Amino acid sequence: MNRIIYFSLLILGLYSQPSFAQVPDTLQTAPPTQPATSTGDEEDEDPNYAVAEADQDSSSHFYQKFTVDGTASTGNVQRLLLQFSSALDWKPNSKFKLSSSPSFVYGKQGGQLTEREFNADLRASLWHQKVVYGLGFVAWERSNLRHINNRWSQGAGIGIKIIQKKRAYLSITNLILHENTDFIERTDIDVWRNSTRFFGEFSPGSSGRFTINSVLFLQPAISMRNNFRWSSTLVLAYRLNKNISLRTKFEDAYESYVVPGRQSNDFRWTFGLSIEN
User: Fold this and answer.
1) Composition bias, kind Low complexity: at what positions (predicted)?
2) Partners of 122 in the beta sheet?
3) What is the tens place of the pLDDT at every residue in 99-133?
4) Model-level pTM?
5) For the domain that residue 90 is a member of, what is the CATH number?
6) What's the CA gap between 145 and 34, in Å, rounded?
7) How far is 42 from 177, CA to CA, in rounded Å?
8) Which of 14, 62, 73, 153 is the most buried (most CB within 10 A)?
9) Residue 197: how many CB atoms within 10 A of its CB?
10) Is 54 strand, coil or helix?
11) CA distances from 119 to 27, 46, 101, 183, 201 (A)
């Protein structure tokens, strides 16, 4: 069964690899393995601004978005970082929505490979147009940065839309998830977590060109002591035209249980653009 799920997620990842993004709400799958170096699990909603979630409940049945971010430097410090992501959202009717946000991060510093992060997920929302809705998901990730061979997460819970207006959206989701992590250099863990996500998207001003998108995940373990994970993302974007936006993205993530020699906290700041339908 795991192989079937794994294969399906890989297909989704390959399909959207050209450049990545993500559709608001529903439930994200675990914060992509480490921000500047990543972190990962559960509903990870990489805020890929642009269309307030309030607008996601429009008559459109299919939404897609591709983004690419990165930084580069040469000279005394040689650094290359590229992030590709995609957001796919399919709404066949008002009762069911299927979403996926696969991503890939590649980084080198001083000629050495630092990041090679894969993240894929499949999320389902029930009664997604209601103020209170149901969520379910499965996610997989692999992280060179945190020395993770495979991490599988699956869970279910509810979401509540606190604010849902044309230029402002705020939602809170709470889920119970099961996580199994295969570390390269540390004892594997099998743990249950409670995951709370705060997601907000705002577009100040009358033009609607500028958007602020933010998400915060709090994921304490409920079956293991002293095991806690959290991550946050802030995206500032400016829409150049109907389909293309410039953006800058700040990511920070913390994971208390890491392999020897790895830091618990990671921060990343990148610039890029997004393309959406």
Assistant:
1) 28-37
2) 138
3) 999 999 999 988 889 889 999 999 999 998 899 99
4) 0.75
5) 2.40.160.40
6) 8
7) 7
8) 153
9) 26
10) helix
11) 15, 11, 8, 16, 23
